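User: Thanks for the earlier help. One more: Competence protein TfoX. Can you show the sequence and predicted structure together?

Assistant: Of course, both are below.
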Amino acid sequence: MASSREFVNYVREQLSGRDDVVIRPMMGEYLVYWGGKVGGDICDNRLLVKPVPSALRLLPDASLEPPYPGAKDMILVEDLEDRPFLTSLMDAMEPELPARKKRTPKKKPA
């Protein structure tokens, strides 16, 4: 089940505590970036974040779920109502998120 536009807009609003949050469509669902790094996914009307140490510490009782079959587990963020918490979660996670990989240009055929 794909995420609804209403849910994506709701998550965008709830994450508006930071100016740098970007939500981009990717393969039928959405990637969530902040600080120029991928920190989470929106899949099946769920917000999932990467299981970095700070997120595991701040969400100790959260369930780990894959965003789609065969994917690595991510942390399900169930309480989307607490905007200050979501902002502090993103702030804590940012230094632990991997930097975006630079794309290698494709070689031109000879």
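User: Great, one quick takeaway?

Assistant: The beta strands are 22-26, 29-34, 37-43, 46-49, 64-65, 74-77.
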